[in-house]
Amino acid sequence: MELPPQITQAFSLVAAGRVTEAVRLLERLAMTGDGAARYQLAEWRREGEIVPRDFAMARDLYRLAGQAGIIEGIRRYIAFLAAGAGGPRDWAQSLVILGELAKIDSAAARQLSLVRGMRLTDSGDPVAVPSGETLCESPRIVRFYDFLSAAECAWMAEAAEPMFEPAPTVDERTGRLIMNPVRTSDTAVFPWVAENPAVHALNRRIAAASATRAEQGEPLQVLRYAAGQEYRPHIDAVPGLANQRIFTMLVWLNEDYEGGETRFIETGLTVKGRMGDALLFENVDAEGRPDTRMVHAGLPVTRGVKLLASRWIRANPATE
Fold first, then answer.
1. What is the 3-state secondary structure (H, E, C) of the chain?
2. Residue 127 lies in a domain
3. Could you give the number of structural domains in the chain?
4. pLDDT tens digits for range 249-261
5. The whole model's pTM is what?
6. What is the extent of the structural domain holding 235?
């Protein structure tokens, strides 16, 4: 997509090392009501790479960009309201604005329809805490039947489709994301600062099922495994990680494929859920250390394509 001339000029200034001039240029334009300048400033404040990260400033700039007619600014502002990023969480207001956007935006209309179909409290939490069947007491593995509806599964798969890219793994030595042949799937990530209300409500359902806070979850992902792809034996906890991944939640988004079971190596437990089923398992022992009994694998898909939603849950808020 071609950038507006003023945004192109700002990036040229940044490339030349003249960041202060670039920011001042966009700030002057933003003061005149320029929506593109407001949105770009918001993006810079959210990302924290060109200028210091400031979620409160980003939130207000997204709001102003939306008022200037930038639809993506409205979407971002709704996400910040729903998640409580950069200011107080206001679930009710996020839905009000989503309703207004839905009048002109089909994606917003679809999200609003999904949220209205969920049984939620006024704060966006599930009315009832999902109950599961314990498959293994120690290490703890719990299965939830019909955790997501068919409509929710279909929407998540569709929303992920344009975002897929090869899935990385965490390098235990450096903590960085790297490509590794142990994992051959594709992944689509829904960053927490861009959670629309539908994604946010689903993440709060995951939090309720795991007895954690929504803020403890890493960004929700959708994993795509084509025939022959797999995730070889591994553990989701990362040795030496200060804020450890204590739980993993997996949700099957489809079932029209063969192979692709989730197998826990030590227990021998092998699970393949139906569409909408979920699997929660604990990755750490009683001392909070990686539990080596939780080595598991996503077996190779032999026919079709497997779609799986995944969320890693930390011991403390992952957004801090």
1. CCCCHHHHHHHHHHHCCCHHHHHHHHHHHHHCCCHHHHHHHHHHHHHCCCCCCCHHHHHHHHHHHHHCCCHHHHHHHHHHHHHCCCCCCCHHHHHHHHHHHHCCCHHHHHHHHHHHCCCECCCCCECCCCCCEEEECCCCEEEECCCCCHHHHHHHHHHHHHHCEECCEECCCCCCEECCCCECCEEEEECHHHCCHHHHHHHHHHHHHHCCCHHHECCEEEEEECCCCCEEEECCCCCCCCCCEEEEEEEECCCCCEECCEEECCCCCEECCCCCCEEEEECECCCCCECHHHCEEECCEEECCEEEEEEEEECCCCCC
2. no
3. 2
4. 999 999 999 999 9
5. 0.91
6. 133-314
